[in-house]
Amino acid sequence: MENKPLVVGNWKATKTIEETIDWVKKAKRGLEEAKKADIVLCAPFTSLPFLVSLFQDTNVKVGAQDVSKFKKGAYTGEVTVEMLDGLVSHCIVGHSERRKYFGETDDNVIEKVKLLLEFKITPILCVSDLNQLNSYIDRGKEIIENYDKIVFVYEPPNAISGGDAYRPDNPEDASKNAGLIGEKLGKKVVMLYGGSINSENVVSFFSKPNIDGGLVGQASTYPDEFVRIFDSIKLIGPK
Ligand code: PEP
Is residue 4 part of a domain? Predict the structure, then answer.
């Protein structure tokens, strides 16, 4: 692998403030010693200020899991890009759980990507398949124009652990489909794979072509297991 793999943790809707602090106590040293990967931890909004403070001046970056499609105004309950500005470096957009449970559309996703780019927060854009990428491309030239400012994730919804029709992807298919998405973009992009990555299977995914790292959900919620992923990554040779 020429560049270091990028590992993005996604805590989803887990962790109180107390649990956040406890997780950091258990994982901090192991993550700081993980020199063979870049790390972003995406957490619920309530955890973000704590994570930013606890990981200040370390190699661990902090990201949000979503952002409002509105910039500002009478939108009760929304967290806007201006509120994230200066707090996070990255933000997940278009996660299939947001589509499934909160009715997020492709148009919403593009609006969010545009706002994040405007504020120089790196969008971590989830793409379920080639059709979805085509739909994003049809909706805005931003995706292609800003290919180098976006982290792409090939994430088939069925491969996400705990999902209804849960069926883990295999590394060959993941690499093939990630490659097709990269080809469609026509540029060398950062392309992650997401779906049931853990310390046991991470090497088999990350050592494949077209996969530059991973979006890690469930395994990132356990501090010991998350740190073990970086121990496994040390075993990956050049691609
Ligand atoms: C995710 O949340 O994007 C994800 C890939 O989850 P998991 O690793 O639990 O499958």
Answer: no
* CATH code of the domain covering residue 84: 3.20.20.70
Rounded distance from Cα 153 to ligand 1 centre (Å): 11
Q: Is residue 98 part of a domain?
A: yes
In the chain, how many domains are there?
Answer: 1
Ligand 1, atom 6, residue with closest C-alpha: 217
Q: Does residue 238 form part of some domain?
A: no
Is residue 155 in contact with ligand 1, taking CB distance under 6 Å? Answer: yes
- Whole-model pTM: value is 0.96
Cα separation, 188 vs 102, whole angstroms: 32
Inter-residue contact 70 to 45 (CB < 8 Å): no
Q: Please write the tens of the pLDDT for every residue from 63-94.
A: 999 999 999 999 999 999 999 999 999 999 99
Count helices and strands in the chain by DSSP H and E runs = 10, 8
33 catalytic residue (yes or no): no
Find out whether the beta carbon of 156 lies less than 6 Å from any atom of ligand 1. no
Gap between the Cα atoms of 116 and 37, Å rounded = 24
* Nearest residue (CA) to ligand 1, atom 8: 217
How are beta strands 38-42 and 151-154 bridged, if at all?
A: unpaired
Q: Is 78 labeled as catalytic in the residue annotation?
A: no
